[in-house]
Amino acid sequence: MSTRPLREVLVKSRLAASSPPRARVRHEARATPPPGGWPCVGHFLTAGLPGRVRQPGGRAAWQSLRMDPFEDTLRRLREAFHMGRTRSAEFRAAQLRGLGRFLHENKQLLHDALAQDLHKSAFESELSEVAISQGEITLALRNLRAWMKDEHVPKNLATQLDSAFIRKEPFGLVLIIAPWNYPLNLTLVPLVGALAAGNCVVLKPSEISKSMEKVLAEVLPRYLDESCFAVVLGGPQETGKLLEHRFDYIFFTGSPRVGKIVMTAAAKHLTPVTLELGGKNPCYVDDNCDPQTVANRVAWFRYFNAGQTCVAPDYVLCSPEMQERLLPALQSTITRFYGDDPQSSPNLGRIINQKQFQRLRALLGCGHVAIGGQSDESDRYIAPTVLVDVQETEPVMQEEIFGPILPIVNVRSVDEAIEFINRREKPLALYAFSNSSQVVKRVLTQTSSGGFCGNDGFMHMTLASLPFGGVGASGMGQYHGKFSFDTFSHHRACLLRRPGMEKLNALRYPPHSPRRLRVLLVAMEARGCSCTLL
Amino acid sequence: MEREVQRVRQAFLSGRSRPLRFRLQQLEALRRMVQEREKDILAAIAADLCKSELNAYSQEVITVLGEIDFMLENLPEWVTAKPVKKNLLTMMDEAYIQPQPLGVVLIIGAWNYPFVLIIQPLIGAIAAGNAVIIKPSELSENTAKTVAKLLPQYLDQDLYVVINGGVEETTELLKQRFDHIFYTGNTAVGKIVMEAAAKHLTPVTLELGGKSPCYIDKDCDLDIVCRRITWGKYMNCGQTCIAPDYILCEASLQSQIVWKIKETVKEFYGENIKESPDYERIINLRHFKRILSLLEGQKIALGGETDEATRYIAPTVLTDVDPKTKVMQEEIFGPVLPIVPVKNVDEAIDFINEREKPLALYVFSHNHKLIKRMIDETSSGGVTGNDVIMHFTLNSFPFGGVGSSGMGAYHGKHSFDTFSHQRPCLLKSLKREGANKLRYPPNSQSKVDWGKFFLLRRFNKEKLGLLVLTFLGIVAAVLVKKYQAVLRRKALLIFLVVHRLRWSSKQR
Fold first, then answer.
1. B155 and B254 share a domain?
2. Are B131 and B200 in the same domain?
3. B53-92 residues touching A, CB cutoff 8 A
4. Which are the contacts of B195, defined by CB distance < 8 A and separation ≥ 6?
5. N or C: which end of chain A has fewer CB within 10 A?
6. Residue A342 maps to which CATH number?
7. Bigger pLDDT: A35 vs A70
8. Can you give the residue ranges of the Aldehyde dehydrogenase domain (chain B) (predicted)?
9. pLDDT higher than threshold 80 for residue A56
10. Does the beta-carbon distance from B58 to A502 stay under 8 Å?
11. Which residue in B201, B407, B448 is closest to A259 by CB distance?
12. Do the domain assignments include residue B241?
């Protein structure tokens, strides 16, 4: 996934600097959307005005670029955090319920925004965006108190009479930078974790998915406490400015290139980061499997959201024989899924913007087109495509594809596939298809990747009980469910000793003698025998 | 340098460091090293910090041995995959979290506890199956040399490499790509390390310092409080990252505290502190001068004697310290204890919150509520109530800072987790394609509803087991009810059969 630089939006935003006052936009946002989808005013009025800060509930703060536009907002949020507003379980639960209401009451609005930005079908929107976010909220609400509880830990003999626990403490002011490919899911899921952990949050939605940016900026703040939550808008330049400020945690989803920028900026303030980046996710298809089933599963995950999914299988590794069997199966799957003319199918998404479209269209020239290959610039449509005879050195095998293009690379054996995978950066996800569980397990143990799914696409993402995140070039840190809560919490070691019993402590004080040392050793090591002694 | 890192990476890629047996073997070898070469290690530490053998043993070696034993005991359990809860869609599949080594880890040590601060992270890195490059601090050169000499004699020479050198070498080293960097040291260098790491998207653990406050409530036994503080503050001549940096208390308590610390110092180190084997020296002249400069213009209530030739600074207490003076601006890292008077606990909390988040916080009070309040209303890496330093000794605790005192944590299981990638794994089968039809396009509303049902229902085996059990119970009840009459008729027969069986078994 990617937050790629958006000069075009910036240009637009300059134009929009003379647009009508904010109040009118808000008025329209409250009004029921006109038939035929959401107004295209959205494109104009919300396109990242330079350094504009949306103050939830209150008046929009209009500030020029010359002054630091973020300072006031950040100071306000930090003060609210220091007042301890966000700490109580009730407050956190109220915020989470607010998020739930936001999803519930604006369902149509969200679907429309997603349809406008990415041509997402209701099915895709509901499953991959709304339902997953809702699931996270429900899970967090159900477990909030359990997660927040102090965690008592085993003690050694020296601290046997004391109370030892790990306190889960909010970090403070958290910055969440969201991408455009799942503009709702990848914004709300980290947000749920940050709010559940009791942080104040600054949210920076992607300026590329304009309609969703508008909804998140206009509607979302109404459902949350305005003193502890703010949405800031802007392109790369504003984000750069924003990153100069000090945060207590930064959660970034996007490309490795921007990830490095974010981490470098974070280093200046020693801010911990979670980076959810992308990568080329390999998909190994063994000879021993049913090509039709594999084709169904691979095609579905590859062409979901028009391939703009960070965990989508990026390329297929298989033997030439398997390729022979796989190609007709893929062809029939694509026809079954999207009909004879995929462009008219309501179930196939579109490329987010021209820049991405041009990039993808250039990739179509690599290798040979076996299936698809058509594109339509006016619609930003690229047909579900399969490429064969692809060389490792071609651009399509050098960068994350992030579009509905599936190259097939031939390998002779599973060993060669493993070697091929290990030669590259660690991917965010890895897939292996085979009827033999030994082959799947072998690929699993001999490679590394953020996540692994055997015999299916990114289903491991749908389980909130599994952590989600990359490793190496595909990112650092993990989230989803309880892992989100832990990511946004500082785990503080707390030991409460008894004020008395000084005789026992005398052991450790100087002057030292060898005898004292021996007793001390016993006290520190004897962990297991505690129950027999007490 | 580059070749060296490449060599270690090749060794890691050979997969040698991964099997559990290998990791245990290496940890045992490390333990053997510490036990067999104890004398060498203690001598090196003594040469660097003028530390007595007993002190070095109790402060450094004990911790290392304890950590190794703990790892050996628990590692087999930690390396196994952890199954997780599943939803309806994945009910029939295998879902688990598999810890995996990250690759090549760089550990940069500090000079104040030159042995434990490199070996303890090393234990975690080995346990997690990584290859390691160790860069001991060049300031504690004797220990650095000893470790470089000893480690290759006991551990795998390709996987675990010690590189010695100064700033220049470290800079060069940081240009290389690692899979994790573990740094212990100060905040300024911490930023440099993280920035270098950002170039390769390398995750970092930064163990930094900070001014750890120590609040003394008036409701407490000052005798005990002062003994504990004296112990923690002057241990290793104040060169401890979690030592109490300054005291916050009501102005009226100051004189008593000074007097009691004075008594305790006499008790601990004798009349002539310089002669005491239990009292260390400052690491080098630069730090010695830095600490001296902190004393300028302060009211010295205790100590203050110094000797440049031996880099000796006596246990010192400053009273009525102005928060704006230099001694309150930087981490002291020496045997100087400033007391800053505050009016009450509220002011103390404000005072702490106005500053960077410290690595540790200490509160002394008989009043449990007050301690809880301090914990609730402040933030820090760790807290100990009514004592100092002790939270470090408990390896069930994560040890690490927050904010400017660092990020990430280690010790025990937390070390293992720090150096592992928790990889989510979901293994499905290629069968049951029918159920998947639901998610494939073309789509319909009913498909959406089914999808939601499957995704959002959380199920686990226990819950399902409970359902099945209930069902079986109902079936059993129905059966019993239905065949009640038969059962009654045959009751005598059944009784006799059972009796007979028991009797015959007894006979045997």
1. no
2. yes
3. 54-55, 57-58, 62, 66, 69-70, 84-87, 89-90
4. A264, A267, A268
5. C
6. 3.40.309.10
7. A70
8. 3-421
9. no
10. no
11. B201
12. yes
B408 contact residues in A (CB cutoff 8 A): 272
Q: Does some domain include residue B446?
A: no
Clarify whether residues A274 and A298 are in a common domain. Answer: no
Chain A contacts of B391, Cβ < 8 Å?
A: 164, 493-495
- Best of A436, A471, A503, A522 to mutate (most B CBs within 10 Å, chain B): A471
Residue B463 phi/psi, 5-degree rounding, is -60, -45
* Contact between B269 and A502 using a beta-carbon 8 Å cutoff: no
The DSSP line for B445-489 is HHHHHHHHHHHH-EE-HHHHHHHHHHHHHHHHHHHHHHTHHHHHH
Q: How many domains does chain B have?
A: 3
- CATH number of the domain where residue B311 is located: 3.40.309.10
Residue A315 class from Cβ within 10 Å (0-12 exposed, 13-18 middle, 19+ buried)?
Answer: buried
Strands (E), A66-133: none
Q: How confident is the model at residue A124 (pLDDT cuts 50, 70, 90)?
A: confident
Interface residue of B194, B276, B368 to substitute, partner A, most A CBs within 10 Å: B194
| Active site positions of B, annotated | 207, 241
For residue B466, what are the domain limits? 461-494
Same domain, B23 and B150: yes
Which of B100, B227, B267 shows the shortest C-beta gap to A448? B100
Cβ neighbors of A307 (< 8 A, separation 6 or more) are A401, A402, A403, A404, A405
> Would the CB atoms of A345 and B371 count as touching at under 8 Å?
no
Q: Identify the residue whose tokens are 């003594």.
A: B46
Q: Which of A274, A239, A195 is nearest to A478 (CA)?
A: A274
B428 close contact with A: CB closer than 8 A: yes
Asked if B330 and B188 count as a contact pair (C-beta separation under 8 A), the reply is no
- CA-nearest residue to B382 within chain A is A493
Q: Is A276 tagged catalytic?
A: yes
For residues A189 and A297, membership in a common domain is answered with no
B31 at interface of A, judged by CB pairs closer than 8 A: no
Ranges of beta strands (E only) in B154-279 are: 160-162, 180-184, 204-207, 213-216, 246-249
Task: Establish if A10 belongs to a structural domain.
Answer: no
Can you tell me the distance from the alpha carbon of A270 to that of A248, in angstroms, rounded to the nearest whole number? Answer: 9
Same domain, A304 and A179: no
Whether A8 is in a domain gets the answer no
- CA–CA separation, B132 and B125 (whole Å): 7
- Residue-wise pLDDT for A496-508, tens only, equals 988 777 777 777 8
Tens-place pLDDT, residues A246-300:
999 999 999 999 999 999 999 999 999 999 998 899 999 999 999 999 999 999 9
Residue B507 maps to a domain: no
Within a domain: A106: yes
Both B39 and B164 in a single domain?
A: yes
Q: How far apart are CA A203 and CA A85, in angstroms?
A: 18
Q: How far is A98 from chain B (nearest CA, A)?
A: 19
Residue range B414-429: average pLDDT?
94
Report DSSP state, residue A380. T
Let me know if residue A526 belongs to a domain: no
Of A88, A123, A130, A257, which to mutate for an interface test with B (greatest number of B Cβ within 10 Å)? A123
Q: Which positions in chain A touch B87 (Cβ < 8 Å)? A: 462-463
Residues B125 and B158 in one domain: yes
With respect to residue B305, please indicate whether it lies within any of the assigned structural domains. yes
State the residue range of the domain holding A433: 282-472
Q: How many CB pairs under 8 A join A and B?
A: 312
The answer to whether the Cβ–Cβ distance between B430 and A159 falls below 8 Å is no
CA triple A298-A300-A306, angle to 5 deg: 115
Cβ contact, residue pair B276, A498, below 8 Å:
no
ipTM value: 0.87
Question: pLDDT digit string (tens) for B90-136?
Answer: 778 899 999 999 999 999 999 999 999 999 999 999 999 999 999 99
Q: What is the pLDDT of residues A483-533, one digit of tens each?
A: 999 999 999 999 998 877 777 777 788 887 777 777 777 766 544 333 333
